[in-house]
C-alpha cells in the first residue's frame, strides 16, 4: 500500500514547517541603555558596558576575549548578574542571563564606591562618557546587523520549506490522480464484462 509511506512523508514535511513556525519566535523588545559595569571573566575583572537589555538578555561590550559559551559575572553596584554568552563579535557579545533582569533596577543602581580590582589596570582603560556614547552607536549597528542576518537565514529556511511543501503537494496530486484513474478503469472493465441488459420478450399470442 502506498498510503502508509505517503502519510509518513507528509508528517515529515509538516514537521519541518512546524519547526520553522515554532523556532522563529517574536523577539522580546530590548531597551537601549548605557550602563558601565564590571565583569568577571575567567577569574579576571574587566570594565564593561551594557548597551541594551531585556528581561532575560543583554548586549555587552568589553575588551575581554569573550567567546560563545563562556559564563560571565556582571556587577553594577549591589546587583550581580550571571549569564552565558550566546554570541560574540569583535568587542560586543550577547548574554543570556540565569535570572530575570529588572531594567529599572539596573539603570537606577549606582556604581559601587569600591569596585572589584582589575587583574591588570592598563593606562586609559577607564572610558569617558563620550566614548561610551560612541560605543553605543557601534553596538546598535552590530545588533542591527545580527538581526538582519537572522532574518535572512529565516527567509532562506522559509523558501526551502515552501519548495518542500510544493513538491509534496505535487506528489500527492499525482498519486491521487493515478488512484482515480485506476478506479475509473476498474469500473469501466466491470461495465463491459456485464454486457447490455436484454428486455423480456412479450408472450406469443398464438
Q: Can you describe what's shown?
A:
It is built from three helices and six strands. With 206 residues, it is an alpha+beta fold. The chain has a domain at 31-148: Thrombin, subunit H (Beta Barrel), CATH 2.40.10. The protein has a six-stranded antiparallel barrel. A hairpin with a 2-residue loop joins strand 1 (31-41) and strand 2. Residues 6-11 and 118-126 have low confidence and may be disordered.
Question: In a few lines, what is going on in this structure?
Answer:
The chain is of the alpha+beta class and 206 residues long. It is 45% helix and 24% strand.
Spell out the blueprint of helices and strands:
Layout: H1 3-23, E1 31-41, E2 44-53, E3 57-62, E4 71-76, E5 79-89, E6 92-97, H2 103-108, H3 129-194
Antiparallel strand pairs: 1-2, 1-4, 2-3, 3-6, 4-5, 5-6
GO molecular function: cyclic-di-GMP binding
Organism: Sphingomonas gellani
InterPro entries: PilZ_domain (IPR009875)
